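Need tokens for this chain, all 207 residues.
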Amino acid sequence: MKRLKKTIRILGLVFAMCFILFVLNALWDGLFAYIMPWTRTLFADYQSYNSFLADYHCYRTFVKELPTDATEPKYYWHHESWEAFAAYSTILPEGTFKTLSDERQDFFHKQEEEFPTRIIIHSLKDDGYCYIDDPKWCDNEIISEEELSFINKVVGNPEAKDQYYYLVVLCINNHDTVCYNGVILNDDTHEFIEFSAEVVNHDKWHY
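Here are the structure tokens for all 207 residues:
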């Protein structure tokens, strides 16, 4: 009888601990993630990074897999309140750099054609360069240069911002937030960057 009571007591404690862990996990996903800022930069590889972002719909425009000859990857993810920011960078050989850049630009334009809530707000044409320290496509009432400063976390040479330019930027309008997804290139270093910034939709929220 004593052994049975002890077993029941142990099972009760295990159940209670599992329940507490379940509640804490639910609170983290449903509440704490919106209150407590969280930044992460370490990932085993691009697959684990992309899988981590899978729960956040704004990042589903990121390339599914990096080319096999991609090197020196850098990752960044930050989440706070109603906003979230993600970016990664990698160095590519010249041929791969050109091929992937063309593929991604075509992909973003197809997104605009297929989804009415997705609008191209910048796309490189001829010499119409827009550099990361001068985002002409931005409406400062929606997203500011300060909000875009997270891109500096993954660029290889943040001091030489005049080398980094936007290839294409897509705006995704959701109910409460707006997502800015795009590609940044550096022709000198063959650096390829994708980014996503999810910010409050000021057309829906009024202060």
